[in-house]
Specification:
single chain; 553 residues; 5-stranded mixed β-sheet; 4-stranded mixed β-sheet; disordered N terminus
Length: 553
């Protein structure tokens, strides 16, 4: 009898939960529905960026529209914020007909969402101005974004936030330990600065910029790592639990920075036109042998042999080949999560066990706030743990030697996460104008600045922030903003028919390799001391495999 009663209660509970739709008093986050107002349900991916920014927008928007009427018998609007952890990959099959009316999310395969008729036409929003501004949202888009997002002249989504992968570094530690290169190589301190000495020009080849004193080549980078070890500093830490994923961040960053924007974009356009890209055809005596090739959809398999991929693998193999270069938990603790690694990085100097670099993304600091790591650190160590100075590290683009003044170039970084904002095609008709107005407001200069000031993350479009807002941001967030404005940014999308038809398969398993019949990710092979040259060659795709996959079926 108890069994049948339990089944009945469970069945009734499911029915009741199913009934908790747009008219329910219960919503995620504990906010109560205000039945005298019109609700607009706004879905937000509550990951490393968090949702605080959206609650601030909610408060402002509701106050601005408190007397507006959208439904008979109701006055004002209630922005119902729905924070969750389902990214665009997971939501594509459940979005249609769902409660979500406006969406802010990442990992959205835009072409797939459009093909599945999930998003409302928001062309009028994109071509509008907000609050008397002189620029439309379209004016704030980059040309590559405009070309990609318009489908037969129609916009269905707009870029959300912009994040980059690579190395975070402890600027305070660099200052305290003198971990910068000096302008004068023969300074009696092996080329590292002594107190009061001028720094080198860094990777960009320009003095008095954000990268002064940082290594300008791979050769200098590992010289720095050796110097760190001598000074009692562990160069690297990364998550042991998700090592194969997170170590791809540094591989990607190195590859993109070495190749440059045009050659990386071949992975999306598959058309080098009248130009060529350099690939490694074989390795002799430990040195890559290269040739220059044209890229078309038929020769796209050669992109896995680009020279930048070789040097990225070579770089990280050098990291893993020396156990003094990384924290033992990174390879030996499978329970060290990404947030644990962040906390380890944050507290390392305070525990007198300093770590210089964290492999992560630009969301890490905001994520550390959300996880409580920063509050725990301050509670444990007091004022010394406040207002720390961390930065996003510009990586060298040169393998050997040193960049001298006037020889360098800015960083190349990828806005890789495919974060977009849009409106559900199934939104009730009477809410369409409200949803469009709210989305437009979220892309006003006022809110773009609020977003960046709150999250420390840039939106993936063109805009400025005030000196006042910039000064309110953490030192790390300031470094990311400076990097954004002094880098070539790659947006991983294309109107190439070949790319659009095969986007999913073309953008997975970027860093895997088959060596002696064993298919593993690059990190696993290198950790297991597989020869780096074999790992690189095992990352290549044969012409037959490529043709069988994309052209012979």
């Amino acid at each position: 009898m108890k069994k049948y009663l339990f089944v009945l209660i469970t069945f009734l509970a499911v029915i009741l939960l199913s009934a908790c739709n747009r008219d329910s008093n219960l919503i995620p986050g504990g906010e109560q529905i205000q039945k005298d107002k019109t609700q607009l349900y706004v879905s937000n991916f509550n990951g490393g960026i968090g949702t605080d920014w959206l609650y601030k927008v909610k408060s402002r928007y509701e106050e601005m529209h408190k007397d507006d009427i959208y439904e008979e018998g109701k006055k004002g609007v209630q922005i119902v914020v729905i924070p969750h952890k389902d990214n665009g990959f997971n939501m594509i099959d459940t979005f249609a007909g769902s409660t979500n009316e406006v969406i802010f999310n990442e990992y959205i395969r835009y072409n797939d969402w459009v093909a599945n008729n999930l998003l409302l036409d928001i062309t009028d929003v994109v071509k509008s101005t907000c609050n008397g501004e002189s620029r439309t949202i379209e004016d704030k888009l980059y040309d590559t974004q405009k070309a990609f997002l318009q489908k037969n002249g129609v916009y269905y989504a707009i870029p959300h936030y912009s994040v980059y992968q690579g190395l975070m570094y402890n600027v305070d530690l660099f200052e305290q330990k003198g971990l910068y290169f000096a302008k004068e190589i023969d300074n009696g301190n092996d080329g590292f600065i002594v107190k009061g000495e001028e720094k080198s020009c860094g990777p960009d080849g320009v003095y008095n910029t954000y990268d002064d004193g940082l290594p300008s080549s791979y050769e200098e980078f590992f010289k720095l790592c050796d110097y760190m070890v001598q000074r009692g500093v562990t160069p690297f830490v990364w998550t042991g639990q998700y090592a194969s994923d997170y170590t791809q961040y540094i591989l990607n960053a190195l590859y993109q920075n070495y190749e440059g924007k045009d050659d990386v974009m071949l992975n999306y356009s598959f058309d080098s036109k009248d130009k060529t890209t350099e690939i490694v055809t074989k390795i002799e005596n430990g040195k890559p042998v290269t040739s220059n090739v044209k890229i078309t959809p038929e020769t796209g398999y050669l992109l896995k042999q680009q020279t930048g991929r070789y040097y990225a693998i070579d770089f990280f193999s050098r990291v893993l080949s020396n156990s003094s270069y990384y924290h033992p938990f990174s390879t030996g603790n499978l329970t060290l999560s990404h947030t644990d690694a962040q906390e380890l990085f944050l507290e390392s100097s305070l525990k007198n066990e300093p770590i210089a670099f964290l492999i992560d993304g630009t969301w890490w600091e905001n994520e550390a706030k959300v996880s409580g790591a920063i509050d725990r650190m301050v509670n444990k160590y007091g004022d010394v743990a406040k207002n720390r100075n961390f930065g996003f590290m510009p990586l060298p683009r040169k393998v050997d030697g040193r960049v001298e003044e006037g020889e360098g170039s800015n960083s190349v970084i990828m806005d890789y996460i495919n974060a977009y904002a849009g409106i559900n095609k199934d939104i009730p008709t009477y809410k369409i104008d409200l949803a469009k107005d709210f989305l437009l407001y979220c892309y006003s200069d006022e809110i773009l600045e609020l977003f960046t000031e709150t999250t420390g993350i840039a939106k993936g479009i063109k805009y400025d922030i005030s000196t006042e807002s910039f000064n309110k941001m953490s030192k790390f967030a300031q470094s990311v903003w400076e990097l954004k404005n002094n880098s070539e940014i790659i947006y991983p999308n294309s109107n190439s028919l070949f790319f659009m038809q095969n986007q999913t398969s073309l953008t997975v398993d970027e860093w895997v390799s088959t060596v002696n019949g064993s298919l593993e990710n690059i990190y696993t092979h290198l950790k297991n001391k597989v020869n780096k040259d074999d790992v690189f060659m095992g990352n290549a795709i044969s012409e037959k495999t490529w043709r069988d996959k994309y052209f012979n079926n």
